[in-house]
Design brief:
The structure holds two protein chains of two kinds.
Chain A lengths: L23 H4 E17 L6 E7 L5 E7 L3 H6 L12 E9 L5 E3 L2 E4 L26
Parallel strand pairs in A: 3-5
Antiparallel strand pairs in A: 1-2, 1-4, 2-3, 4-6
Chain B lengths: L1 H23 L29 E4 L22 H19 L31 E3 L10 H4 L30 H4 L9 E7 L2 E6 L4 E6 L16 E7 L2 E7 L22 E10 L2 E9 L8 E8 L16 H25 L1
Antiparallel strand pairs in B: 1-3, 2-10, 3-4, 4-5, 6-7, 7-8, 8-9, 9-10
Classes of the chains: A mainly beta, B alpha+beta.
């Protein structure tokens, strides 16, 4: 385990984990928590889930690329995300768990911008009909 | 540790269900099945068929249980009081979705963030997706079906992963089957209906299905011709589109959410009914008859709705299915670790 990773304590699995496209617990290791700051290189809008490629600087200043699993791209679009929502060069903080095979891939259980704002906030900038601001009273 | 987490999750889910069941005991039952809206006439296509065209979604019943909780008995609908509570919960969720900062006590897990999914816009009125038999529960499996292996993956936190063939057809990005492609799940519930003279086509966002349904009364294909999505034939009964589908491959997908659960047999016969009840709503129901799998037929029903701005997006599922790779390589890494530990124990 790299020294730069701070250990975090796992809590109960979210029910959502059981509903996603696949079993996250099959992919990520509950014994390998990761917590780091990274700079976005690229957001890959691919199915069935998007991935965020980030550069993480180690203690010696060397950069390592990590891939962070994100939501289904279609769900992101409907939640108000656009191509402009996470531009290259943006710094983000990631907490999650590393892939079981030891590759530099992790789930992003909690991702925030460096000012503490959450990454996956529903934005009113998206499709007005599908954004979470739409209420059932609209119908 | 994993077992403790699973136990904690199970207890949390159970407590939620019990709390809901207790709340359900009070109040009067909501009105019954959707009825045709007053002062509305079913539009027709230029060639005279009922017009069902548009993009519809089963989002409003996201999270509705397939099988009814036993404490509800034969009660098919929530009370108005219970629905008002759900309405408040949806409003709170919508407000929470707009909050820009993560709660200081946000839990870090091996799963995705809880706010990834798409959302219901209004309460689902039903206590279960299964509406017949009256107890709202899937009939028992036959003895043969009980021996049938269930592919692993979705929702199973410790899937066997000796091969990609151990995973469900959904995880493998192949298909969720006919019912799995329309039953409400956390995202990707879009159903685009396109009509032409003699045909109805239903484009299903996840996992990129296109059902082409002939209406001209031609017979089903030979029983030797079989597929994941079966051979569909449609006809109109008044303004209702009735689709009968047979010729399924055996042992592929089940009738659960995302095509999960015990895989169905080659005897599966589905009869679906699409009835437009207002400009923005279709009442959908499907009767599942598979005598080799279930001891009796049963029926699932729920509304699908049109929403402002909602449309299907591409779902090229396998283009970046790193999860399959990670699950297999993760299982191999764990085997290696276990073998090394065993070898170390011998020395």
């Amino acid at each position: 385990m790299r020294k730069t990773f701070a250990f975090v304590i796992a809590a109960a699995m979210l029910p959502a984990a059981a509903w996603a496209h696949h079993a996250f617990a099959a992919e990520f290791d509950a014994d390998k928590p990761v917590k780091f700051k990274g700079t976005v290189k690229k957001m890959e809008w691919i199915n069935p889930h998007a991935w965020i490629r980030i550069d993480v600087k180690g203690e010696g200043g060397q950069s390592t690329e990590w891939m962070i699993e994100a939501a289904a791209p279609n769900a992101l679009l409907r939640r108000g995300w656009t191509k402009q929502s996470l531009l290259p060069g943006t710094e983000i903080l990631v907490e999650g768990y590393q892939a079981k095979d030891g590759a530099n891939r992790a789930n992003g259980s909690v991702i925030t911008f460096t000012d503490g704002k959450k990454l996956f906030v529903g934005s009113s900038a998206g499709d007005p009909g599908a954004a979470p601001g739409t209420t059932f009273k609209d119908k | 540790m994993r077992h403790r987490l699973i136990m904690l999750l199970a207890v949390t889910v159970l407590m939620t269900l019990v709390a809901f069941g207790q709340a359900a005991a009070a109040g009067s039952e909501a009105k019954a099945a959707p009825t045709i809206a007053k002062a509305w006439t079913q539009p027709k296509t230029p060639w005279g068929d009922p017009d069902l065209q548009g993009t519809w979604t089963s989002d409003d019943c996201i999270g509705a249980p397939m099988n009814r909780q036993a404490s509800f008995g034969d009660r098919e609908y929530y009370t108005e009081q219970e629905l008002a509570q759900t309405e408040q919960r949806i409003e709170r969720q919508q407000q929470n979705d707009l909050v820009e900062t993560i709660a200081p006590d946000a839990r870090v897990t091996t799963g995705p963030p809880g706010h990834w999914g798409e959302r219901a816009r209004r309460p689902c009125r039903q206590t279960s997706l299964v509406v017949d038999p009256p107890n709202g529960r899937t009939p028992d499996l036959t003895a043969d079906a009980r021996r049938r292996p269930i592919p692993e993956g979705a929702g199973n936190n410790n899937p066997k992963a000796d091969s990609w063939e151990d995973f469900s057809y959904y995880i493998r990005c192949i298909s969720r089957g006919v019912t799995g492609s329309i039953f409400p799940v956390i995202y990707g519930n879009g159903q685009q209906i396109v009509q032409g003279p003699g045909y109805v086509t239903i484009l299903q966002e996840m996992v990129h299905e296109a059902r082409v349904i002939p209406l001209n009364g031609r017979p089903h294909a030979s029983p030797n011709v079989r597929s994941y999505m079966g051979d569909a034939r449609g006809h109109w009964e008044g303004n209702t589109l009735v689709v009968e589908t047979t010729n399924f491959l055996a042992n592929k997908t089940g009738i659960g959410l995302n095509g999960g659960g015990t895989p169905t047999s080659d005897a599966l016969r589905l009869v679906e009914r699409y009835t437009r009840t207002s400009p923005d709503e279709i009442h959908y129901e499907v009767t599942i008859d598979d005598p080799k799998t279930f001891v009796k037929p049963f029926r699932v029903a729920f509304p699908i709705t049109q929403e402002p701005g909602y449309r299907n997006f591409e779902y090229a599922c396998h283009e970046g299915n790193y999860a399959m790779f990670d699950s297999l390589s993760g299982a191999r890494a764990q085997e290696k670790k276990a073998a090394a530990a065993k070898a170390a124990g011998r020395n």
